[in-house]
Amino acid sequence: MYVAVKGGEAAILATHDLVAEARRGDPAVPEISVAQIREQQALACARVMNEGSLYDQDLAALALKQSQGDVIEAAFLMRAYRTTLPRFGSSQPLDTAAMAIRRRVSATYKDLPGGQVLGPTYDYTHRLFDFTLMEERQSAVGSGQSLPTANPDRRLPIADRLDSHMPRVPDILGAEGLMEAEEPPEGDPRPFDLTRDPVSFPADRDVRLQSMARGDEGFLLGLGYSVQRGFGGTHPFVGEVRVGEVAVEFVPEELGFAVDLGDVTLTECQMVNQFQGSKEVPPQFTRGYGLVFGHSERKAMSMSLVDRALKSRDFGEATNYPAQQDEFVLYHADNVEAAGFVEHLKLPHYVDFQGELELIRRIRKEREERLAQERDAMPEAAE
Predict the structure, then answer these.
(1) In sequence order, which residues have a C-beta less than 8 Å from that of residue 288 and are 6 or more positions away?
(2) Which among 15, 104, 310, 380 counts the fewest CB atoms within 10 Å?
(3) What would the mean pLDDT of 188-205 be, rounded to a whole number?
(4) With contact defined as beta carbons under 8 Å apart, do 8 and 2 qualify?
(5) Percent of the chain with pLDDT over 70
(6) Is 8 within 8 Å of 15 (Cβ atoms)?
(7) Rounded CA separation 229/108 (Å)
(8) C-beta separation of 115 from 163 below 8 A
C-alpha cells in the first residue's frame, strides 16, 4: 500500500482534503443538498439503491453527493454500510399485482385490461436540450406561491384515478394456458442469500435474479442487447412494465401476523418470449423477469432479457453465448467487485513489476546471445 512509501500516510491524508475541495467545487455556487439529489435525481438514486443492494433514498442521495456522482463508488458506500446493519428476518413476498401504479405499459395488448398508463417517462421526449432548466428560479414551494396546474385532476394520486383491476399480462396469457407456469419450489424454501453464502454453479434462478438485481446496469444492458443481435436468439415482446409502490409486510414471531412496514417503489418487467415446445411441453410463451428498486425501466428490461437467456438450459436450448452462461453473467455483473479488481492495478506492484522487468531483461539478453551465435555460425555454413 502507499502507506508503506516514504511520506505515504501524510500524502493520503492530504488527498482526503483535496477530495473534499473537489467535491465542493466553486464556493460561489450554492452547495447541493442531499434532499435536492433525492428529489431531483431520483433515477440516479434508484440505480445506486439497486447496485448497492439497499433501499434507502436518503442514503443513496448522500452516497451520490459524497462520491461526486460516481454511481459505482456510491453503490460501494451503500454496500459497506449495509454490512453494518442487523438482520432480524425476511419480509413476506411482495405482491406486485397489488401495486399502486404510476406507470404501466405493454407492447402486447392495444386494449390492455386496466389501461395503459404512460406516466413519467422520457420515452416520448425529443431529446433536445431544454435550456430553460439552466435558469435559476425560486422554488414556488419555498416562496409560498401555489404551483400552477393545467388539470386539477393531475394533482390526485394516479392510483386513485385508474381502474383498480390491472391484471399482469403473463397472468392473462396464463389463464389460457399459453404462458409458462411458474410455481415456487417444493416446500417454498427461503431464497438463497448471495451476500452470505458462496455461489455454486449451475446457479438456481433465485441466485441469478439476486445477482442481476444488484448487477451493473450497463453490463446487463449490453448482455440483453447481445441476445437480440444474434448472440442468444431472444426476440421478445414487452409483456408489461409497471412502476409504482408496493407494501412491504413482515411477520414478527411474537405476533404471528403480518405488519405493514411501509411502501417501496419498484419497477417490474415481464418479457414474453416464444417457445416451440418439446415432447414434454406444448408450444407456449415463456417469460423473462426483472424486478428492481425505484423507477429503473432500462435495468428491469435488461434483467428480464438476460433472465430468459439464462433459462435456455431449462428448455433444452443451446447455451453458446455469454448471456446464456450463468457463470459468466454472475461472475462479471457485479460492478463493485469488477471496479475493485480493475482499480487495484493502481496500487503499488513494485515487487511484481521488478520480477517482470528482470525476466524481460534476461529473455532479451538470451535472445541477443542466440542471434550473435547464429551470425557467427553463418560464414562457417557458407564455406
Answers:
(1) 234, 236, 270, 271, 273, 304, 305, 306, 307, 308, 309, 311
(2) 380
(3) 88
(4) yes
(5) 89
(6) no
(7) 21
(8) yes
